[in-house]
Amino acid sequence: MQTSTENPSRKALLIALENAGYLKPFFALAIDLALFAGGLTLVLIDASMWLKVLGSSMITVGIVRLFLIGHDACHGSFFKSEWLNQVVGRIAFLPSMTAFSLWDVGHNVAHHGFNNLKGRDQVWTPFSKVEFDALPRYRRALERIYRSGLGWGLYYFLELWWKKLYFATRKQIGASRAKYHWDSALVTSGMLTWVSLVILVAFETNQSLVLLLTLGVIVPFVLWNVVMGFVVFVHHTHPKIAWFLKRHEWQQYRAYLTATVQVRLPLGMDRLLHNIMEHNAHHLNPRIPMYSLRRAQALLTERFNDQFQIYRMNWQTYRDCVRRCKLYDYTNHAWLDFRGQVTSRVPLVTSST
What we know:
The protein is mainly alpha-helical. It has one domain. The chain has helices at 8-13, 23-44, 49-75, 82-93, 100-114, 129-134, 137-146, 152-165, 170-173, 178-205, 209-236, 247-253, 279-284, 293-304, 315-324; strands spanning 261-264, 309-312, 327-329, 334-336, 342-345. A three-stranded antiparallel beta sheet has the order 3-4-5, with no helix packed on it. A hairpin with a 4-residue loop joins β3 and β4 (334-336). α3 (49-75) runs antiparallel to α4 (82-93). The longest helix is centred in the middle third of the chain and has 28 residues, at 178-205. The chain is globular and about 65 Å long. The two termini are 20 Å apart.
């Protein structure tokens, strides 16, 4: 979603990379569908436990990568055809139980249109100290778990998927439309089909139903939530990333490059994630398909590397980020710990050409 606060020169730099096609996306889709189906096959056949565990891991990777295809399709950047984006996006979202139209309103409109503006963006928005202290005890405990450095899966499952991406209520997203319910029903049907297949195979082959459901459905779905929660956390949480409460201030300092972080994961794991870690380029122009994001990020790094944060994640850098980023002082722009002590003052960077 383009807003009036985008920087035109940086946007123009990436226009040529809006090159959605047909061959590359079909190839990527076929690989990831095969990865998911192959993993499920390994779990369901009467084979060794090691093969079943391998299959469970393949299912998890398949869910994540298919979700990222759905994510691109929902932006209209995967296929050149809008009809194919709509159909394939819904299919790719089935294993992660992501309702296409709800993802569109929550991600494309709210997150990309207003990222880091409290009250509009819904992804890892930090509480102020006053807000945190006013929360019920159970919710304060949840927030401590979410921001413990290991609570990403629980956060994504409860705060995003359950509340906003699956049969979301008007109270949660501000609207109620038929397509939201139809898409939620579609992913429910997909999950029921998946579970029914596992149950059928378990009875036909006299295998443990609990084992097949655990490795074939439950573990991959849990790990999918963990991976997704982690990815969105590291994209938008950093000691030098600012959040805003007042819209006029957000408009003054708003910049797609400075609102997210480019993270390099250990062992090159970011390459498994369809280049979504090239997140500055994606936020600047979500019409760039996944297979062109690395080239787009290289162009931005060459021209504007002083305007956004780049770091290679390791245990030390991640622990420091988690330790500092608990609450946020929206008046003085500083990250706080849960006691309200300042852990990092955030430099506000204006958008430049």
